[in-house]
Amino acid sequence: MTRPRTVISVSVTAPGWRAALPGPAAACRRAARAALAAADAPRAVEISIALADDDFVRGLNRDWRRRDESTNVLAFPAGNGPGAPDAPVMLGDVAVALETTLAEAARDGKTAEAHLCHLIAHGVLHLLGFDHETDAEAEAMEGAEARALAQIGIENPYAADHASRSL
Predict the structure, then answer these.
(1) Domain ranges in the chain?
(2) How far is CA 88 from the centre of its chain?
(3) For residue 81, what pLDDT is reported?
């Protein structure tokens, strides 16, 4: 039997992503794999990532979360069972908003790539069941984000010199 492999599909629907940073799809895959490793994901998974514009993500936020406002990242867990033992687990979808991401990166003095990777790690951790509703949950999630980002050479966004919490 062949071991299932993790599949991370990235769709760049807003052309501004390619203008803002080189290789946005590759950056997403690196960040997603790092988040899976930081969370000790037990088996191969499938994740779909959409690099969209603010209007698209705002529409998702309005339609699915009943919040008619912009946001930087949304995660939609698949919510299905484990499936066949030789198939990857369908984790879900992550959508990232271009204009909000770039504005936050500029505001916080980060590169667009570093902030995108942080948002992807954050979204993937949500797909894995992490949350930040309580202080304890936030601490666990932030720790996993920091571990994931460290794996790909990005500074801890929650360190004292990066005190802004935009997620």
Answers:
(1) 7-162
(2) 19
(3) 58
CA distance 19 to 39: 31
Tokens of 40: 């000790």
How far is C-alpha 79 from the geometric centre of its chain's CA atoms? Answer: 17
Q: What's the CA gap between 139 and 130, in Å, rounded?
A: 10
The third-level CATH classification (topology) of the domain covering 7-162 is Collagenase (Catalytic Domain) (3.40.390)
Bin 129: left if φ > 0, else alpha if -120 < ψ < 50, else beta.
left
Largest CA distance in the chain: 49
**Burial (CB count <10 Å: 0-12, 13-18, 19+), residue 1:** exposed
Q: Give mean pLDDT in consecutive 10-residue pieces for the chain, a chain of 167 residues.
A: 77 96 96 96 89 97 94 90 69 97 96 97 96 92 96 89 51
